[in-house]
Write a structure and sequence with these properties.
Order of helices and strands: EEEEHHHEEHEHEHEEHEHHEEEHEHHHHH
Shape: elongated
Number of helices: 15
CATH class of the largest domain: Alpha Beta
CATH topology of the largest domain: Rossmann fold
Largest sheet: 5 strands, parallel
Strand order of the largest sheet: 8-11-14-7-15
Distance between the termini: 67 Å
Number of domains: 4
CATH architecture of the largest domain: 3-Layer(aba) Sandwich
Structural class: alpha/beta
């Protein structure tokens, strides 16, 4: 039990706490929310005299003034009532009340008491909704064009973004720390889209032949998983791509840039459903203090991908560990991207044109700075970005994915300052 006899700190007022006023000890027996004389929603405390059994009701401010001898708690200060009107009959529960409504009601009353003034319910609801979105795990159900529904379960906050990128047949470079779920996300995307999934981890010893295939001692061509995906379609995950030999990885340039690729046995046309996802711990700029074995990737290779940051999502961590999400509520949650539902084709194409104009303006700014900046803004940024805008990405997010990928803040600011 908390005794706060002479401590007017209202935050200590809780059920079971005692205060000393008018020569008696009073115990808080209940806390409710009611309408004060001024029409505000406020916390109301029921206090029982430990000797006489008499009960009174007061707001937190009323208790404080009462303890301090402020006219029995009947005065008003800082805009708060100190005594309350009779308790209204409880309102019947509405069938339409949601968890958001119930939490917003409770939070409004608490914030009212803390802030010494009225509270904007809409603002409280927005805060609660944002917090719930940041904690509650995302259950994803994908509806394919044929009407088939695919439940892919709890997914990363950026899963929808990756799903849209792959559905637009844009190759994705997922950059994130070890264990952030890049591999499982790529597999789930393939499942959601009804595509075959292939995966291969690469390292310094990965050879060109292990990617494109080779002829064995008997003269037979040995196919690879990459060849299968390229020829017959599917999602191919090239994992740990930044650990591979950059000279060898250049072979994927032809796979991603052209409609065909020369394999050892013949030239093969790329299947329209072939998409490559690169899983990496870095953005291809070389080793850092954490990932010392990473290689610098050729800029022409990076230019063929849209980059998506894949940070830790604590909700996935909780789901995988089989614990309540509250266990990870203190961990930061990545901010989800917002997608746009265009009113019609004209509105969508207007956004595409806006995006392409911005790409060209950025390219011109880079050119005006000469060799002081080393940033590639090729037509692929326009081509790939146009696809992403058409599947709902905002112009801003598309620029981040297709243009600003890997560009440090200082360089970006220098370029943006020269955009005309």
């Amino acid at each position: 039990m908390s005794n706060i006899n002479t401590t007017p700190a209202w935050k200590g007022y809780e059920i079971g706490a005692t205060v000393f006023a008018e020569g008696f000890h009073w115990t808080i027996t209940a806390i409710n929310t009611r309408i004060t004389k001024e029409g505000r929603s406020s916390r109301v405390f029921t206090l029982r005299n430990d000797v006489t059994g008499e009960s009174v009701e007061k707001t937190s401010r009323g208790i404080t003034l009462w303890v301090e001898g402020g006219n029995g708690g009947s005065v008003e200060k800082y805009g708060h009532d100190t005594d309350v009107s009779p308790a209204p009959a409880p309102a019947p529960a509405k069938s339409g009340d949601t968890l958001l409504d119930l939490i917003a009601d409770a939070v409004s009353a608490r914030v009212e008491a803390e802030t010494r003034g009225s509270v904007d319910r809409d603002e409280v609801e927005a805060i609660v909704e944002q917090k719930l979105a940041g904690v509650a795990p995302r259950q994803i159900e994908v509806v394919r064009l044929d009407g088939t529904k695919v439940d892919v379960g709890t997914q990363h906050v950026h899963f929808e973004a990756l799903l849209r990128i792959v559905s637009a047949r844009v190759n994705a470079w997922l950059v994130g720390p070890a264990g952030s779920g890049k591999t499982s996300a790529a597999h789930s995307v393939a499942t959601a889209l009804g595509l075959e999934f292939f995966a291969k981890s690469v390292g310094p010893q990965t050879s060109e032949s292990s990617l494109l295939g080779y002829y064995d001692a008997n003269g037979n061509y040995v196919r690879t998983l990459l060849r299968e995906a390229f020829e017959f379609g599917g999602v191919f995950l090239l994992d740990e791509v930044d650990a591979g030999n950059p000279a060898v990885l250049v072979v994927i340039n032809a796979l991603l840039a052209n409609g065909s690729c020369a394999f050892p046995d013949k030239v093969v046309d790329k299947h329209p459903d072939f998409v490559l996802i690169a899983g990496a711990n870095t953005i291809g700029l070389g080793a850092d203090r954490q990932y010392v074995g990473r290689q610098q990737i050729d800029a022409a290779t990076l230019d063929r991908f849209g980059l998506l940051n894949w940070e830790y999502d604590p909700r996935i961590e909780a789901a995988a560990a089989g614990v309540p999400v509250e266990c990870v509520s203190s961990a930061p949650v990545p901010t989800p991207l917002e997608f746009i539902a265009d009113a019609d084709d004209a509105a969508r194409e207007a956004r595409v044109q806006t995006y392409v104009r911005k790409v060209v303006a950025i390219r011109n700014a880079v050119a005006s700075l000469g060799k002081s900046v080393r940033v590639i803004v090729s037509p692929r940024a326009s081509i790939h970005g146009a696809k992403l805008v058409r599947v709902g990405f905002s112009v801003k997010d598309t620029l981040d994915i297709c243009v600003w990928k890997g560009v440090d803040a200082d360089t970006r600011a220098k370029i943006e300052a020269n955009v005309r």
